[in-house]
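User: I'm putting together a small comparison set for a docking exercise, and I want a reference complex before I start. The sequence is below, and the ligand is zinc ion. Could you produce the 3D structure with the ligand included, as structure tokens?
Assistant: Of course. I'll restate your input first, then give the structure tokens for the complex.
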Amino acid sequence: MVYELSQTFHFEAAHTLVREIDAASSKRIHGHTYHAEVTLRGVPDAASGMLMDLGFFRRELAVVQEMLDHHLLDEVAGLTKPTLEGLCAFIAEKLRAPLPLLASVKVWRATGDSCKLIVG
Ligand SMILES: Nc1nc2c(c(=O)[nH]1)N=C([C@H](O)[C@H](O)COP(=O)(O)OP(=O)(O)OP(=O)(O)O)CN2
Ligand SMILES: [Zn+2]
């Protein structure tokens, strides 16, 4: 049987955004609290009964969290655009190698905006 295993983390970050609507306030540096959910999908190992031990899973997420927490997203190397979409892509890219069972990355803000990347 196929299972999905998820972990969440959060980070505080600032950014500016170039957009056509509400352009002036978005262009000023402002901050958000972001939440991210990373999901693995696969068949549990027969010996351990786990897709991956949550301890190892959390350790990998902490590496990415450190790259984003209390950073100005505009300056984060490898983050092409400081949007929810860009954050999903950045997190997936960083986790693709250490988490071979990576299935999706979801990023959201308390205001209800959310974006989910299905890793193909
Ligand atoms: N497709 C996307 N659209 C927008 C994104 C995004 O990541 N992907 N991000 C933003 C902004 O970050 C913006 O700060 C939020 O804009 P908006 O919702 O208009 O602002 P509010 O004042 O309503 O809410 P806050 O979240 O408190 O800023 C815009 N669009
Ligand atoms: Zn913003």
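The radius of gyration is 16 Å. The first strand starts at residue 3 and ends at 15.
User: Thanks, that's exactly what I needed.
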